[in-house]
Amino acid sequence: MTGNHRNSNITRRRAIAVAGGTVAAGGIAVAGYQSAFADTETAADATATASATSTGECMTLMSSVTEGPYYLDGALVRKDITEGKSGVPLTLRLTVVDATDGCTPVKGAAVEIWHCDAWGYYSGYTTANPGGSAPAESEEGDSANDNTYLRGYQIANANGVVKFETIFPGWYTPRTCHIHVKVHTGGEKEDGTYEGGIVNYTGQLFFADDIAEEIFTLDPYSKHTGSYTTLDNDMVYDGGGASSGLLTLKAVHKADPSKGYKGFLTLGIDPDAENTGAGSGGGGTPPSGAPTGEPPSDAPSESASPSASASS
User: Fold this and answer.
1) Which of 91, 95, 108, 172 would staple 130 via disulfide (CB 3.0–4.6 Å)?
2) Overall pTM > 0.85
3) Shortest CA distance to 153 belongs to which of 187, 181, 117, 116?
4) First-last CA distance in the chain
5) In this predicted model, what pLDDT tens digit does every residue of 95-138 receive, in sequence order?
6) Burial call 31-70: b when 16+ CB within 10 Å, e when fewer
7) What single-letter DSSP state applies at residue 254?
8) Number of neighbouring beta carbons within 10 Å of residue 139
9) Cα gap 262→90, rounded to integer Å
10) Which helix (H) or strand (E) element contains residue 206?
11) CA gap 171, 37 in Å, rounded
């Protein structure tokens, strides 16, 4: 069953250039981004992290699922992946642990995420119809690079933690709201790139329906109307909670969801296992003329933004 909103494999070359993104503006106040993206961790954040990393959850291997049809090689190493995309700010704090060895942190794990924008469009596939009725991706008028926005890597620190600054994803038919994620280990970061190693985990991160529904009534999300899929009816989410990718979410300002959310999750992986990304579930079919998977020559560079940094 679906809800209804009214107005409201290419070769895997793990090459990634260090680059920064610009903080999204347009439709959401910049102050909201500054608040949601604050790099300090409050006592409430620590509590949320502890909840998301409870022993019962982190000792369970994450459920691997399909990488979906919108994966691209060459994502940039950066904390802020927005590139000027409008939307409700979302700060992700993901912790990678070895579920086969007492939940010890996996230092140096490369965590990669990618997701659609507020209207359901992915970078590299901006002509793919997200379903329902939405403006063309080009109508947003942002400064984003159409081949790189809302994609990026971070390298886990000694505590296994990575942090990303992004926006709350939109939706596209026939999927629920989600973020794709891969965890790589065994490679090396050299001259701003990450080469070699293996993919240990391929999965997706999910959002509680009530929070997603509230977000989708806000601008710019409300310009995409039509039927969306709830968690219970999604073809990928299996109802397993945190071990299946369900995020713990904390509002920056409870009375004003437009100010953003912080999301927490522990990714329990097996660093000796390899996952191809061919797990269960679908995710839609990409359009013809798919991109090559290599970053464009004019992709953002490290000098373009001082915000590019490893997680701390």
Assistant:
1) 172
2) no
3) 181
4) 41
5) 999 999 999 999 999 999 999 999 999 999 999 999 999 999 99
6) ebbeebbeeeeeeebeebbeebbeeebbebebbbbbbbeb
7) T
8) 11
9) 6
10) strand 193-206
11) 23
